[in-house]
Amino acid sequence: MALVGLSCNLCVVVFLRSIPSLNNSFGSLTLSQAIVDSVHQFLLAFYLAPTIYFQPRELYEVSHHFGFATLLAYQICCFSHVCISVNRFIAVSAPLTYSKIFSKSNTRIIIACSWIFAIAILTYELQIVDCWFYLPGTSWIYTFKDNPACNRVKWYGDFALNCTSVVIVAILDVASIARLHCFNVKHKIDAASAQRRSRQIILVYQASLQGILFITELITYFWLSGFASNKWEAYALTTISWVLVNGMDGY
């Protein structure tokens, strides 16, 4: 499953690099997201899957390193979604200043800041604080180390932070949809503009669906998995949902 997600996201990377019309701010932000999604799926496909299938002790002993890298890719992806939503909102609400706000140099700075911010947060939470995100024993599920400091990281540094990101994305996307609707009602537009607006609306709806998937994954991973009656249910509610949410970004 992770291989499918990896393939889809790599196709997005190739597509974005090969289409001149996407050599813009939106394309750059989406490319950044597709790259970290690819890294996320790669780590799940080529580390997690072999580890839980063959269960070698050596791979379990280094699982906290791979857990850090996988969670980092996920965190950057969440921040990338926020940046893309801001990009869309500015495009539909302030089109005259959009090119200035999201110039090439500013876009590079935004991407760099989102990566640096995620790296700083995860480095503090999983390297400085007494906390690991790892595979315990012969487990099939990444989990946080069980101690008070790590519980705070789990609920505030991961769950609450990413829920906040999803809420911000949802608010911006709803505002973008409302803005597009108001514009279409108030102004008569030609066929080309109508087609362009239609594509923008589709992108916003797609982003909204992605937000729903992310919040669903957070709920299943952190809450519903606690009600699982066996390891297969727990695996589906955690690892599988985590694979799906980032893999679906490539569609």
TrEMBL record:
This protein's UniProt keywords: Membrane, Signal, Transmembrane, Transmembrane helix
InterPro entries: 7TM_GPCR_serpentine_rcpt_Srx, GPCR_Rhodpsn_7TM
Keyword Membrane: yes
A cellular-component GO term for this protein: membrane
Gene3D superfamilies assigned to the protein according to its UniProt record, in alphabetical order: Rhodopsin 7-helix transmembrane proteins (1.20.1070.10)
Sequence ranges assigned to domain G-protein coupled receptors family 1 profile in this UniProt record: 8-121
Residues annotated as transmembrane: 66-89, 109-135, 155-180, 201-224
Cleaved signal peptide residues: 1-18
Compartments in which it is found: Membrane
Protein name: G-protein coupled receptors family 1 profile domain-containing protein
Taxonomic lineage of the native organism: Eukaryota, Metazoa, Ecdysozoa, Nematoda, Chromadorea
